[in-house]
Amino acid sequence: MSRRSGPRGTTRRLASIRPDVTSPIRPRLALLAVLAFLAVACTALPQAEVRYGTGVTFVPMVADAIDDVGLGVDVAVDAQGQPFTTYFGLPAPEGAIAVTRPVNTAFLPAVQLTTVADGIFVRGAVAQVQDPPAPQYVVPFGPQTVPSLEGLTRESAGATAIAIAGDGTKHVAWTGNDGVWYASGTDRFTAEPVEAPGRPIRQAGPIGPPSIVVGPDGDPWIAYQVVTPRGVEVRAASRSGERWDVEVVARLPLCPGCPPPGPAPIAVVDQTPTVVFADPASDAIGVARLEGSTWAVDGAVVSATDALGLSVAAHESDAWAAYYAEGAVWVAPLAGGSPIEGPVVELGAAATSTGALAPRTDLATDGEGNVVVAWQDVEGVHLAAVGRSGLEPIETIGTESGVTPAVAVAPDGSTVYLAWYEPGSGDLFLGMRGKAEGVALAVPSPIPPPTAAGPVAGPCGEDGKPILEIVSSGTTFTSSCLVAPADEPFTITYENPEPILHNIAVYVEQGGDLIAGTEPQTGPVTQELDVPALEAGEYFFQCDVHPTTMLGTLAVVGKGGGGKGGGGS
Predict the structure, then answer these.
(1) What range does the domain containing 474 cover?
(2) How far apart are the C-alpha atoms of 546 and 139, rounded to whole Å?
(3) What total of structural domains would you count in the chain?
């Protein structure tokens, strides 16, 4: 419970998410939705709605569309199957018509964090470039201020990575203009450097994209590649008290014409941190496993000529790698067995891209070890289930111009989440593949419009009866009226039953001085707000995280009753 007063300082198989080949193309509703999304993505932001799909379908959603957002995207799901997406947020490119940023959105550049709950996108950050200018600007998830993000650009951005522990803690890593960073938290994040390059990075490439995993002991591991004068080093970083220990897992020779450092994905295989890496000089994919306090390296687990965009996924003692090689997508088991050749792909100019726009694959598993793979080519982003006989395509729509896919699967296998970046419009997309009956799907408005709250009999406070309990639903309060007695302290009880970041705060007037407020918390939680004695009159209350949709009148009435009329607007 948080109090503050005064001024502020699996069990389902992947067959359930594969295309229904016995029925007509079902995602027609999704197609209509995405056409509407794309029509507005580059202009004014649309008003929020909640739409409901039917059947097993893939629904693409604009997850964020303010300025240039979505570079370096990654996605993970928590134990309840809720998706969380990390990505870089950058100011709109010079010359672009920028949409006015609503209050309570991240200050850019930022490492952003977005989730969708009950049909509403909650957009915040784990790290942002500056402190908010006033206490009422509460950015969801409580980002840490990292001033060095000021130098982050499209050219210097590397990638983000996210892993979610069983207790719900989000572990986030990123590489950019200031080296390798790490942040963790639930309602509020702390951020710290893992490894600094010595001087600002203006062009991505010296440090490859990071990968992060939660180890068997609950501590995070981060893996990445770094160019040094002696060659390319594959490094793994782990926490040791208050500092990070960075170890060299493997050394790869520099070679003429070799691509810049790619990913070094890390996973927990059979309770052991395991790093996978491509070695262009030997045309192979190697594996390094932590044995005791040292790394045992097998440098040629899979033969792969000029492998690019490497990713890895693991389930218990099984692990798989995905990559591009010889013009195709491949998925290879890392414990023996022949690689599965996927579709022939054409990467085009993307094959030479570095940093956040480098082409990549991504793998994910559910709680039973079923595997899905995502990749990109000149025709956009694609998704498939990995079967014994090969890759079984999963139909997606609205992904035709996407790049840098990231994929995650709910633990029970019921839903696949596919995230990607649209470089033309600078938007972040999130697609959901699963049974949509009864599931609220979010429409791409960063701030939903004001919604009328629950009914109140007559003007707020007219009968003088105290109303000091309030509940939220989605991003609205269930009432726009609270009533309290004058000239004596009182307590407001606020219930947030959902996994959305909310608080309640009382002000002298809308936009005025704060009287009392709680700290934002993700539900389910009940907060009690102690408010000092107030003179009779009308005051204002709101959720600081959603001030345009969660707001109302606090009528403070004397013994004679009869507060002034009012209510939420």
Answers:
(1) 469-557
(2) 10
(3) 2
> Same domain for 112 and 154?
yes
Domain containing 503 — which CATH number?
A: 2.60.40.420
Pairing assessment for the beta strands 120-128 and 144-145 based on DSSP bridges = parallel
pLDDT for the residue numbered 500: 78
- Asked if residue 556 lies in contact with residue 537, where contact means CB atoms within 8 angstroms, the answer is yes
Q: Assess whether 169 and 129 both reside in one domain.
A: yes
pLDDT tens-digit map of 298-317? 988 999 988 999 999 999 99
Asked, for residue 490, whether it belongs to a domain, the answer is yes
What is the Cα–Cα distance from 461 to 54, expressed in whole angstroms?
A: 44
- Model confidence at 452: pLDDT above 50: no
Q: Are residues 179 and 255 in the same domain?
A: yes
In a domain, 298, yes or no: yes
Q: What is the distance between the alpha carbons of residues 224 and 212, in angstroms, rounded to a whole number?
A: 9
400 and 482 both lie in a single domain: no
Burial degree of 42 (CB within 10 A; 0-12, 13-18, 19+): middle
Q: pLDDT by residue (tens digit) across 74-102?
A: 999 999 999 999 999 999 877 666 666 77
Which residue blocks in 61-212 are alpha helix, DSSP H? none
Query: Which residue carries 């608080």 as its tokens?
Result: 503
Residue 452, domain member (yes or no): no
Q: Is residue 418 part of a domain?
A: yes
For the domain that residue 218 is a member of, what is the CATH number? Answer: 2.130.10.10
The predicted-structure confidence for 400-442, as pLDDT tens digits, reads as follows 999 999 999 999 999 999 999 999 889 999 999 987 554 445 5
Q: Is 561 exposed, middle or buried (0-12, 13-18, 19+ CB in 10 A)?
A: middle
Structure confidence at residue 104 (pLDDT) = 78
DSSP category for residue 36: H
Q: Which two tokens stand for residue 332?
A: 């290879």
pTM for this predicted structure: 0.74
Return the pLDDT at 380.
94
Return the closest-CA partner of residue 557 out of 457, 424, 468, 434: 468
Lowest mean pLDDT among 10-24, 170-184, 194-208, 464-478: 10-24
Do 434 and 537 lie in one domain? The reply is no
Mean of pLDDT values over 453-478: 76
What are residue 252's DSSP bridge partners?
232
Same domain, 184 and 64: yes
Asked if 79 and 196 sit in the same domain, the reply is: yes
